[in-house]
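A further point concerns the way the authors explain their paired sequence and structure data. For illustration, here is how one protein appears when written out as sequence plus structure tokens:
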Amino acid sequence: ALPISTVETFLEKLVEEGSYQRFAKCYERFYKFQPEMTRSVYDQFIAQLKTSFKDEIKEIKEEGNLEALLESLDKIKDESKSRVEPAWRPSGIPEEDVQSCLVPYYLQQKQYMQRLLKEKEAERSEE
């Protein structure tokens, strides 16, 4: 089972990475206008984040599948080590990403339809 200390450590590192300075920078206009309110919103956000995260972990543990989920993540990680080519990542241009997925499918469908057409034409010529 996943020890609580591991969850706490992860949460603390997460909070450190999402520091108040970064938060204030993202909401700079609001921060300049009301710095105290910005701090209050940040504190509430972090408290809610921690609570939600702990609740999710608790729920997963109660369902009894946390270990299975972690094992499946380990399996995915191990499988990715043997992969020679890098995993697919979006290019940032949705049209190109969709095209790269759909074009091979459409070409396959085109070949299938051409083969069906030839079969039907052959059947008709035999009649």
Summary: The chain has six helices and no strands. The radius of gyration is 27 Å. The CA atoms of residues 30 and 52 lie 25 Å apart. The chain has a mean pLDDT of 83.
